[in-house]
Amino acid sequence: MLSVNLTPMAFLELLIHDSLTRFVAQITIIVVVARLLGLLARRLGQPMVIAEIVAGIVLGPSLLGWVWPAAAEILFPPDSLVLLQLVSQLGLILFMFLIGLELDLKLLKGRGQTSVAISHTSIMVPFALGSVLALYLYPSWSSSEVSKTAFVLFFGAAMSITAFPVLARILSERRLLRTRVGVVTIACAAVDDVTAWCILAFVVASARASGFQGAIITTLLALTYILFMFYLVRPLLRRIAARVGPQTGLSQNVVATVVVLLFLSSWCTELIGIHALFGAFLFGAVLPREGGLAHSLAEKLEDLVIVVLLPLFFAFSGVRTRLTLLSGEGAVLVCALIILVACLGKFGGSAIAARLTGLSWRESGALGVLMNTRGLMELIVLNIGLDLGVISPTVFAMMVVMALVTTFMTEPALALVYPERVRIQDSLEAVPASLESAAGVAKERFSPLICVANARSGPGLLAMAAELRGTARLRIQALHLVTPSERASDYVEEGIESGAAHPALQPLLTRASELAVQVKPISFVSSDPVDDILSVARVNEVDLVLVGWHKPVLRQSLLGGTVARVLRESPVPVGVFIERGSEDLKRVLVPFVGTKYDKAALRLVRRMAQSRPELEVTVLHVRSVADLRDPEQSSILHDEPAGTRITLEVVYDNSPVDVAINRSGNGYDLVVVGLGREWGLHQPWLGMHSERLIRESATSLLVVGGGADTPTRGG
Questions:
Q1: What is the C-alpha separation between 258 and 568, in angstroms, rounded?
Q2: Going by fewer Cβ within 10 Å, which terminus of the chain is more open, N or C?
Q3: Record: fold of 8-424
Q4: Which CATH number fits domain 433-484+502-550+557-626+640-706: 3.40.50.12370, 3.40.30.10, 3.30.70.20, 3.40.50.300?
Q5: SS3 79
Q6: Cβ neighbours of residue 173 under 8 Å, at least 6 residues apart?
């Protein structure tokens, strides 16, 4: 029985009573803290790697060991760090393999010369500046036991790193992968990865070798091994990849073979003297991307590596990071100097090189900001340096702070240099001339933005948009927003395949071909769908935002969630289309009580009637019973174009919803109604309203809301 006087420390020691329970507790705490801080990082618009680095520091001597040293001693005693380090190294080997998988030579297609020029400049300039800074720091911040050459080379290499995975996510979430800035940046980062790791391999060889001759031998062995991997191992991997297909899938034997070869590659490079991580990276780089082998392996490994194993590495790094070593004025000044040199070298070198290769100053500045992102890759390099004894714990802490600052500043600096409005304009492809010159001599343009959440809703939304064109020429844009992925490989894959429309838009494009309607497909990753829908609508100056309706979760309002925000915040009219199978439009009902949204709904129906003279439109004007005492002639319909079949019917009833529901079953193919309380379609507190008109209508509906004060062009 537990004693009632058991102290928290005694209770913790009781829970953690051997090496296994301690290791399980470490994993649990590390993953939980990393995920919780990740939620905060996302709210601040920062990448997950920021949260993971901070989580490691929080669990280390800089915070936990300072605030609660007794708990830190129980959770992370020095003798337990050996196991934590070994498992984290396993995670790094798998992670570097995944980074190699993401390195695709397709990234360089058509832009190799520009990318190589910018990339090499972005390596050489920070390397040179870092080396000069290392010469200045060596007498005071290193020791005679460390070779000056190794210290200088390592410092230069550490300054040259770019975080490829973090960069891929930022580019995709900011809709830059398909812009000129994006494709050049991701290609530069790929070249940077290869070059920086080759430099680092030479640095490690120099640090481990007994002299210059030993470093040369190690380098020659490394070059021989690289050739061996590309010309002998790669063909073998092609045979393995050929056995993986849609029907066969990825068998456990194939996975076992690849994993064994991966560890053998890491083992070989460790024996050569250039570190096991280089072998893992190289093996991932030579693995063929044809077929489904690379993608299937990434899917199997990434979640385990990213969620469990990498946080262990961050925690191990955090335990080794002692920010208290930076308490002196001299240390703070040196840390600031390191950050300044890192930013000048990477940002300045990349931006100037980009400008000289033809990019604008704005694009060059954005590329420089992005290339200055270091994140996890920098932390990996720093741990290698600390393990080799090339840098001291104090310099290690300074460089960790530099990695944090340069990664943290990427998002705000990018927003300053490359504002959202410009990013969206550059990310959306130019509209083909055929779209602008279609429809003969029509002078007006009708430009709806169709928001496609899934493939099923696309064709119906496209048909509805085509019906609303009136006599104007049609300029349809179809937008599909992709949910953010945790996998950097997904982002890079999206960028490579940018020439093809997203699969969710394919049914819509097929229907567009059948209707002889041209559509501009748009798709990108979005963490805030409403903000991105409205941004695209503003930049492209659309006349109508057309969204589909999907079954709500539990008791959520039918017009709640994303749809509610679009209706509330859109500067242009919004149509919510609830499709119930009526494809051939012959009769349309427009319930009307006179609100601004009713008038907007009537304007849209008038557009339909202009292009479809055979269309029968009934405007059902529902008035209060009290109006019977003093009836007046309705002036809803006036100056209707010749040939249109729009009729007005006035009904006196105190329940407009009941009237509209009853009349919707009288052979109508579509009901077009304005958003509003009168129709039970509004957003009161807690969403407590019946929305009976949507639930009980016998046919398809188009609910009109949004910026209804804005007239629709061509109507």
A1: 53
A2: N
A3: Na+/H+ antiporter like fold (1.20.1530)
A4: 3.40.50.12370
A5: helix
A6: 484, 525, 526, 527
